[in-house]
Amino acid sequence: MTMNIKQKSAVGRRIGQAGVSLIELMIALLIAGLISLGLVQIFGASSATSQMTEGLSRVQENGRFASQFLQRQLRMVGFMGCGSDAGRTVQHSFVNHLTRFDGTVPGGNKYRFQRPIEAYTAGVGTAPAELAGEAIVDGTDVLILRVLSEESTTVVSVTKSANDLTLLIGTPGAAFLPEPNKKVLFGLQNCRSADIFAATLSGTTPGSTITVGGATSPNVYLDPSVDTCGAAPCPWDFRISNAALNAKPLVGPSSLNAEVHRAEYLALFIKKNASGIRSLYLMRFKRGDVVLDAAEEFIEGVENMQVRFGVDTDATSDAAINEYRTAAQVIAGATNEAAIDDRWRQVLSARVGLLIRSPGRAGAPDRTYKILDVDYTPTDNDGAIREVYETTVALRNRLFNS
Fold first, then answer.
1. Using the 8-state DSSP alphabet, how is residue 290 labeled?
2. DSSP per-residue codes, 330-378
3. Which helix (H) or strand (E) holds 199?
4. Worst-scoring range by mean pLDDT, 2-6, 82-86, 124-128, 129-133?
5. C-beta separation of 368 from 341 below 8 A
6. Order of all β-strands in the sheet with 347-357
7. Is the pLDDT of residue 229 over 50?
8. Residues in CB range of 44: below 8 A, 6 or more apart
9. pTM exceeds 0.85 for this model
10. How do residues 63-115 score in pLDDT, each as one tens digit?
11. Domain boundary assignment for the chain
């Protein structure tokens, strides 16, 4: 069949106009938009999941670290070598040369090592002098520990004169060493006695000496029962834990069975960092000094800390916990520092609750959290992930080494 000229022209026009119609274009744009929207939703969900996972990971990491650190430090409460602080107090074989036994505390609470553990609630209890300037978050608990370090070095010999004490030591470990030739706090103990004092370590090799002058700060020990001491520190030859270290060495360098440890002060509390985020802060002695360093941010994102104490309330201790109390309840009715010391010696365990948040937003809803027996509702509306971590630690030195 032959095609005429008019038909050919119409076919040519149809071929030149080939393409998509407006309806087809709109349908294509709609499909592309739906695909893009789906991709955006997938990306958003993936980003939210990533933020949630990262936030949860940070919370869990900080929670584990905080719990392990607190467990380790609390287990050292009452440690005095082969005897606990409670046992040595009963035996009158412990002398804190940094404070007076008549109840006064020259230089502040930081030196009161006859009280290895104590706490108070910020905004409710009275802060010790060394923490009075800290902007601690009201309603959170402050935990204070005064402990001997795990690391120690042996004592080869002890030399005492009227106002001086010199210890000849064995090989000090690297973890034990403070900076040589600077005054720091030490704890000297054997199975019969224990002493806390400030002294200077001469070096880092066997045969180095730890020397303390009885009249130098902060060794301010006064025995109110001895008139001859007057207002001056009692001479070292007069009393150092019942003079139990006077025994002459019998065999080898360890016959004194004495060791010397570093004496440490730790204050843990909650305050806001420079970014306005609540964090756990730590205050301790400066390295190579007997004064406290500025508080340092220890763990970011710790919003709240609550501590309860397992107390043996029996008149005659049976090393069994009768109930858990707040810090204020532990010392209720105690009217002086010595009585407060006695109350804290009744504590046999500590239960710590921490509320930890993620660093940034993670899409978590706001809700109320229970930290031990305290309800806490965040008001920041920041979408951060929050988790409560609780741990109970037995003060094993009081339970099993009294």
1. S
2. HSTT--SHHHHHHHHTTEEEEEEEEEEE-SS---PPP--EEETTEEE--
3. strand 194-201
4. 2-6
5. no
6. 323-325, 302-311, 347-357, 386-394
7. no
8. none
9. no
10. 999 999 999 999 999 888 877 887 777 666 787 878 765 566 666 688 899 89
11. 58-400
